[in-house]
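Narrative of activities, Objective 1.

The group set out to show that a structural description can be obtained from nothing but a protein's sequence at a throughput compatible with the screening campaign. Below is one input-output pair from the validation batch, recorded exactly as produced.
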Amino acid sequence: MEAGRKPIIIIEHCEDGLSPWIILEYRHASIIYGRENLLFTNIPRKYHKILAKYGRVEEESIIDLVNNGVIPASQVIILDPKAREELKYTHLLEAKYVVVGGILGDYPPRGRTWEFITSKMPPTVKAFHIGEGQYSIDGTVYYVHYLWSNKDLEGYQYIDGLKIETDYGEVYLPYRYPVVNGKPLLADGLEYYLKYRKIRDDIWSELASLQ
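Output recorded for this entry:
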């Protein structure tokens, strides 16, 4: 099977609001994968203007879009840590849409992708995991990007757990991060946010222009 257009990544928003942290991850996902290849679903209308800069935006949930036949179940796969089978390049070739949970991680994981998304989909929708570690949203998008671009995981690297030094102590992120050019891949501006409890000025200006 030959590679065609890469699948659209659907980020199903599962948080109550749009926190600075999740905005930074959504923004980074767009930088990694391309705005034209990203679709945010289950987005309250008040957030559409902000997120439209980073991808297409849909108020309906991917669950409703699939169950109502707007998006065929046969074209969708879900990335779910509880899935039994690991994601392969061939699965990306067969899918038009790859669903990622827009969920900020808990440690230990609580299986919220299964609870909020997979369990509510038709049983014909296939789910796959991407290893034993718990990735950030943008880290998951990078994994898909890497697998699609390289057709396998040869050369792929990651670390489990990351420490960020701040003026008020150490912040430990107990998640799995891709390593790119020798460094853990964090959302642009996230380390600054963790250190100073605010969004970096250039990103804030970008967001403010979208209000």
